[in-house]
Amino acid sequence: SRDTRRGAEQAAALRGGRYGHDMPDDTTLYDLPLVTIRRVAVTGMDNNVYLITSKDSGAQVLIDAAGGIRKITRMLEESANDASETTRLSLIVTTHSHHDHIRALRELVDETGVRTAAGSGDAGSIAAQTGVKPDVLLKNRDIVAVEGFDLTAIHLRGHTPGSIALAYAPGNGPVHLFTGDSLFPGGVGNTDRDPERFASLLADVTSRIFDVYGDDTVVHPGH
Hints:
Elements: H1 2-10, E1 28-31, E2 35-42, E3 47-54, E4 59-63, H2 69-78, E5 88-94, H3 105-112, E6 115-119, H4 123-130, E7 136-138, E8 143-146, E9 149-155, E10 164-168, E11 176-180, E12 183-184, E13 187-188, H5 195-210, E14 218-221
Parallel strand pairs: 4-5, 5-6, 6-7, 11-14
Antiparallel strand pairs: 1-2, 2-3, 3-4, 8-9, 9-10, 10-11, 12-13
């Protein structure tokens, strides 16, 4: 994607490959002890939509309703066997307000009635574009809690004012980071060649991700 290319150009010296992971085409990415992580790529921009399911409770968090409502619905159906209890979508989290990450948000909310969350700095733009006002406004280090697992919100300023990543820390094994368009294997995200935005994003990624999480951390980017 454009974000990936520009981000790689901007941060060639960044510790890029350290957080990378090659993702298979299969919907199921990781079958972990407490959760299952699924992914489906949608639209011509290959946006990644992620689904995290608690194996015990069946509660689910969907990250970025980016488009392809039929693919998202199919992934939800395929997740029915990922838990010992009936699976249920509990929350949709949007990593940032760019149009390619919210194209299916209105339709999915209308179909499911599920609550939504987003970084506080992007909430107004998301509401203006989709008519969906986020129910939960996330700030740096806020905890997103559903029955069976927690996610930690990480505010990464620069790609958009309210961009967030989400960290799942299972206790045993590597942390899984869902980074939207703020961090890709190879570099940070697009900042439209704005030096101040680039410096801000690089500083946040360094202090809030690289300095906090270990070398075995797995990044799940937005494309």
